[in-house]
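Task: fold both queries, return tokens.
Query 1:
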Amino acid sequence: TKKDEENLINELKSLPININSIINKEVYKEIAKIMGNYLVRMEYKPRGMVLKRYTIDKEQRMAVLFYTYGDETVRYYMYMNSKDSSFGEKSVDDLIDEYEITTNGHNISVKEYSIKGSEQKRYIADFEYKDIQYQIKGKLKREELDEILKNLFFM
């Protein structure tokens, strides 16, 4: 009944565990079956950034996590290919800055793009760990991306 449904929803809301973090752990477990156990996990996410869906390609040994953040999608790629994989990138935006962030001794290169007709910026962060290439792409504030990168968890 409608009343039972409402009670269940209220009960779920009151649980002390974050259901999204449980889902994230399960997704990483699934990806680890294909990529190995040394994945770099995104530990920090800005408020409102939620895992929406993910894809795993066993043949290509690649996984993509799609996070919604406001009206935008932030993508987190993990792949075993060579470094020259750029996912068929055709940049119509202008590269305006490049910088590096070091997290736990790992260098992460970041490119910042201006988006034509918008005040927003687009970022692409690239790094490698244990023969796996990683890339985080999306439109978000530089401070938010930097915080995500500073809090990556290297297994």
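Query 1 returned. Query 2:
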Amino acid sequence: KKISLTKTLNLRSLLIHKKIKPLQGVSEFLNYLKINKEYRGAVTGNLKHNAELILRKAGLLKFFSILKCADGLNNRVQILKRTILQARKRYNFDKVIIMGDTTKDIKAGKELSIFTVAVATGSDSYQKLRLSQPDLALHTLKEYRKIFDKLSKSH
């Protein structure tokens, strides 16, 4: 546990001093959702104070009405399920989309029968993400319009 705490503190001090820029297409995608009055939530494996710091420094925190962090929990399915239930109490929506950059994210979404979008911006390659059978796989979020094309064809 000491190592974990030390790693967290080191990460936090690095984050405080580091400039953080959003990945290509992220700001455009979030702006598109905001303009179209879509609810936006983020679920992350990061600790809450680190996630907020990253999103704030990247200029993205303002886009999210929901931010759920694992804060030590490892079960992504339970975290997602809990987050969706809490969101349903606050907001009226009928469609949930899970976007992730790991096969674990995609598998969790599939286990909950949620439309899944894999984005190859993390440690898992595009090919590896495709093997987890997302509903849609993107190389970057610059391709975000494909999400809405796919959704409109699935109805």
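Both queries returned. Flag for query 2: The chain is about 50% helix and 15% strand.
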